[in-house]
Design brief:
Elements (H helix, E strand, L loop, with lengths): L18 H17 L7 H5 L15 H25 L1
Length: 88
């Protein structure tokens, strides 16, 4: 999974210093994973327009955000398991 956005402490805005590093590392990881044939769960993309759900400490999210992420994680795992089961 990609790393989620980093926000400024006490705001709902992206951290201008750290967030570009996160984006760059996510891009590198996605390239490596695609070469290895590993599916990537884009949690960054999922949460980038949901900054109203940040907890306000730079790194963490409110419960509702974790629920959104969990639903996507479970859905992707199920898709991957079904895909693997159908190819065997």
């Amino acid at each position: 999974a990609s790393t989620t956005p980093v926000h400024n402490r006490g705001t709902h805005e992206l951290d201008d210093e750290i967030n570009p590093i996160i984006v760059h590392r996510n891009e590198i990881a996605e390239t490596v994973m695609k070469k290895a044939g590993v599916a990537v769960n884009d949690l960054y993309g999922l949460m980038s327009d949901k900054l109203e759900l940040v907890r306000g400490d730079k790194w963490h999210w409110k419960t509702e955000a974790y629920t959104i992420m969990a639903r996507q994680i479970v859905a992707m795992i199920c898709r991957q398991l079904n895909s693997t089961a159908n190819t065997q």
